[in-house]
Each structure stands twice: as C-alpha cells, then as structure tokens.
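A reminder before we start the practical. When you read a complex entry, don't treat the lines as separate problems. The point of joint prediction is that each chain is placed relative to the others, so the output describes one connected object in space. Small molecules and nucleic acid strands, if listed, are placed in the same frame. In the example below there are two entries. Take a minute to note the order of the lines before looking further.
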Amino acid sequence: MGELWEVLTRHFPEFRAGFLVTCTFVAVSFLIAMVVGTFVAALRVMPVRILQRIGTFYVETFRNIPLLVLLFLSFAGLRRAGIEIGRFTAGAGSLGLYTAAYVAEAIRSGVFAVGQGQIDASLSLGFTYPQTLRRVVLPQAVRTVIPPLGNLIIAMIKNSAIIGVALGLANDLLKTARIINSNTLQTTEVFFWAAVGYLLLTIPATFTVRYLEKKLAIKR
Amino acid sequence: MTYLFDPSNWEWIFAGKNARFMLEGFLVNLEIAIIAMTLSLVLGLALALLRISKQRVVGGVTGAWIDVWRNLPLIFIILFLFLWLPRGVRESYADLVPGFLPDVFKNGAFLAAIAGLTLYNSAVIAEIMRAGIKSLERGQGEAAAALGLPYWKSMRLIILPQGLRRMVPATVSQLITLNKDTTLVSIIGIQEVMRHARIVTNTSGSPFTGTGIDAPLLHVFIGVGVLFIIVNFGLSRLSRKLEIRQRERTGTDVESITGLEDQVALDTSTR
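Here is the predicted structure of the whole assembly.
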C-alpha cells in the first residue's frame, strides 16, 4: 500500500502532464470529428447521388480501417511521401477523422429518426421550412443524437491511448506510464494510477450518458 | 497524387513473396480475432448471467468488474498484461503450446494479447447480452415462472434464446471492432500484418523482402487498410442482413446499430 502512494506522489507531475495531453487529444479530435462528421452527414442526406456516394465512401472507409493503420498512414506514410505533418496533428487528426465516420452515422440516424410525417404536418400547419427545421426537426434530432455522441467521446478517450504508444507521437497518459515503468519497474503501481486516470474520464462519462439517455429519451 | 498512383510505387505487391507475406500476417490477425471472440462470447455470457443475478452482491461485484474493464483503453490492458505477466509465466506458456500450432501462438506475448482482448471484449459483450435480456418484456420471465419452470430452465429455454437473438447484430458489429483491434497486438511484438508491413517496407535484410524493389510505406499501409476494409465491410453487410431478417421474423423494432463503436451498440437496446 505504501508503495502505491509513493509512486503517485513521486511521479505526480508526469502523470498530470500525461493526463492533460490525453485530454487535449480528446478535445481537439472531438472538434475535428464534429466538424467533419457533420459535413459528411450532410453529404449523405443531400439529394445528389454523387455526393451521397462520397459520403458513404468516407464512412465505410474510415469505419472499417484500424486506427493504428490510419496513424501509420498519416504520420510515417505521408512523411515518406514528402508531406511533413507534425506529430500532434497526425495523432489528433487521425483520431478525429476516424471518429468522424461514426459521428456522421449518429447524426444521420438522428435526423432520419424524425419522421417525414411530422415535417409534412408542420408545413401544412403553416410553418415555413426553416421554422419547421428549427422548431420540429432539430429539437428531436438533438435529443436522439446526444447519447450516441457521448458514447463516441468515451470511445475516443480509450482510442486516444493508441496514439502515444503506437508511434511515440506524444507523451499521453499511457505513454507516460510506460516511460515511468521502464525507469522504476513498479508495473502494478504505475499502471494502477494510469488506470485511475483513464477511469476518471470514462466512468463519469458513462454515467452521464446513461443519465442523458433516460432524460432525453423520446417516449413514443 | 502522382506519387500515389505511380505504378512503380505499387510494384512491391508483385515482387518476391511480398503479397503472400502480407496475407500471412493478415491471417494471424483473423486467427487472433476468432480465438478472442470465442473466448469473449463464453466469458461474456457468464458475466451477463452473473450481472443479472438476483443476489445483489454478485450482481454489484460483476457490474463493477464489467465497468472497469469496459472503460479502460484496450491497448492499456494489453500493454499492462504484457509488462505485468512474469517472464516465467510467459515462458512456461510458450513451452506448453502444442507443436502443431503456428509459430506466432508460441510467443509468450500471445498469452497477454489474447487475455487482454478477452478481458476487454467479454466485458463489452456482457453488457450487450445484458441489454438483450433486459429488453425482453417482463411477462416472458413471469410466464415461465408461472408455468413452474425453475430459474435456470426458464433462462435456457425462454429468456436467452430470445434475448441473445436480438443482440446478434450488435455482437457482429463488436466483432468488426475486435477485428480492427487485433492490430494493437503488434505493439507487444506479435508478428501480424502491421509488423509484416513494416518488414516489407524495409527492403534490406529480411529474406522475404530482398527483392530490390522499394515498397513505400504509404502504399503498403494503404494495402493493409484495404484488407481490413474488405473483411469488415463484408461483416457489416452480414450484420445488416441479420438485423433485417430478424426484424421480419420477430416483428420487433430493433433500431439500427450496425457498425457503431462498441458502446454505441448498447444505448439503443437499453431504452
């Protein structure tokens, strides 16, 4: 027990720095995922065949490819091709683009969850189309989309751990634990605290999502 | 773009044994996925049954176990087990493996890889199965009890067949995630497709790659990506088909959950 606390107090600055890097990765990647995901979802609901195809191609490609392959492609692959991109950009970018495919699917299913009948009803009641979107479609779509997006953030926190160890792209929490471990060889203690770091992020997020799911559920 | 499509940059595929070497690596990934999936299904079912146990303590402890493993990064679990398992355990495992199995299986790290994948995925699958069982109407269990079926019989004959069938699409989509996650075991040194890809890009030394042809990293990893897309795309089609067939058969309205990342698969069913 004593050893457990000792490891934490001695290496707290490193752990904290790693934790913050993980948080930064998640925040930046989530921004990228939201922007790209919304754009791709928009492509997939456009009435133009070719745009739909492009959207589908994006989703199917990025959803079925391992994140590790994306990281290799974006960092080492592009570097060999003569395109220099930074370590952080490659890491956060890959995670963001990977998650964007899932975000696009979540948003698309949210929009489709609002029935065409409701839109027709709203229009026939004299609402204009923008009003219908704002007052009928969006409030319901947002309620359907938020729980899946929450789940994607959780998945993202977990996936962000790949960035650090895969290519040594950044000293995030897991990479930090690995470095401390190679210096001290106190594997159980070091990884225990890293686990606490990850669970501090994921478990509250899980409970929040469960709560939101219940609260936002549309009773039909 | 010209760099990407320049035919000389794709020559590596046909040079020497490169293509065969890459496919062999990919086969290891598939084998790992199948072994880990089988173990996860068995363990996941056991965890799900314990989780819904009427004994409060048992259910609570199992719930905590599931929540911890499900919420840790998979790569974290694999790396931890690899570093934590004493060398002696790994070596005695390597000695125990029967000789007819492929060489990758004899690596001590393989034990850590399979254990890590199973710990994580059994927790996720337990949650999926629990959601499936919970989604059944209460009346099913009550009717079984009223007919005088004991707990385990009503589970085996009434609850599980219906509950698990509902969760088949979600389970297949978890299989897709698992298939992608098998690349993570390359980090602890198991020779699978990612490692093979790196060997291929390194033209000197290896007996497989002494072809004198430059294999650009970008192109090799695009090749790896294509392999995964082919298999996973097929799986996601299968998942969608199963889902439609099931909706037709049971008339239940299970919402679309195909291909979403593990935790997303849960939320539609817990409503």
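Discuss with your neighbour: Residues 3 and 122 of chain B are 43 Å apart (CA to CA). What might explain this?
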